[in-house]
Amino acid sequence: MSETTVAWVGLGRMGVVMAGRLLAADTPLSVWNRTAAKCAPLVELGATQLHSVADAASSDVVFSMVLDDGALAALHDPATGLFSGPPAQRSVRVWIDGSTVSPVAAETAAAAAAAAGVAYVSAPISGNPGVVESGNAIFAVSGDPAALDTAEELCLRIGRLVHRVGSRAEANVVKLCTNALLAVTMQTIAEIAVLADKVGVSRAALMGFVNESAIGSPFSRYKTANMVELEFPTTFTAQGQRKDIRLALELARQAEVPMPVLSETEVAFSRLVGSGLGEGLDFATLVLNAARDAGHTLQPEELT
């Protein structure tokens, strides 16, 4: 499918690097974003800028990466969305969405796509912009079986691995469950870092041991610099992570699955957002809130 044309819709922090990976793989690419100026870096790399979201439907494949359920719904609005133009001008056959949204939002989008004669695939991505840029992101995909090969081919131009998990919105469930685990893990790391520091053990020593233990992971190793140096360049904001927690909790409510640990984690994230300590920073700033709760002041350390 080397000549398949792709229209990319949504150029936020993740979307721009994902689209850039497609360009680097010589994928014929056009781009659209509500804030048109965000298209400029990709246009400089060879992408074609679209004038409206409906213009994206003139490509073979639309790949979207948007903020939330509302933004996804806007993409299939009958009056202004992807399918609002004359049918004769539409050649799109597959719509792939990489956003972290609810299963209900994904299924509604899939129904709108099917009504327009387009196959829909949920393809939420796991990985921050740096991980995407290095080619190490992974995808969960589900949806119309006829379009999964196309989705996998494109996703492998962006990341390193694709997991096929179903024929409906299963991929969205997988992503919400994964992000729920991520949030709980981050809160726990923040709490143990404060505990160790307050009783006189360096955070660098603690994290060095944790990272080599059975509970260590790529995530704990990646967040070690945040915990030790107390610098928080943004990979994912507390507001964004809280949005995903709330989506997971709503799914749990619908399924009658109690999630007391995740519920408490949502409170921790809400307190962080309300405190302003993490404003414009990474969600690892949970450690600052944990320290304040403990009546303790953290000082930056050097990584060892």
Relevant terms:
304 residues; alpha/beta; Rossmann fold; N-(1-d-carboxylethyl)-l-norvaline Dehydrogenase, domain 2; nine-stranded mixed sheet; 12 helices; 48% helix; elongated
Q: Work out the count of structural domains.
A: 2
Beta strand %:
5-15%
Mean of pLDDT: 97
According to CATH, what is the topology of the largest domain? Rossmann fold
The name of the CATH architecture of the largest domain is 3-Layer(aba) Sandwich
CATH superfamily of the largest domain, by name, is NAD(P)-binding Rossmann-like Domain
CATH class descriptor name of the largest domain: Alpha Beta
Explain what this protein looks like in three dimensions.
The protein has 304 residues and is of the alpha/beta class. It contains twelve helices and nine strands. Helix 3 runs parallel beside helix 4 and helix 10 (238-255) packs antiparallel against helix 11 (260-275). The longest helix has 29 residues, at 170-198. The radius of gyration is 21 Å and the shape is elongated. The model has no long low-confidence stretch (mean pLDDT 97).
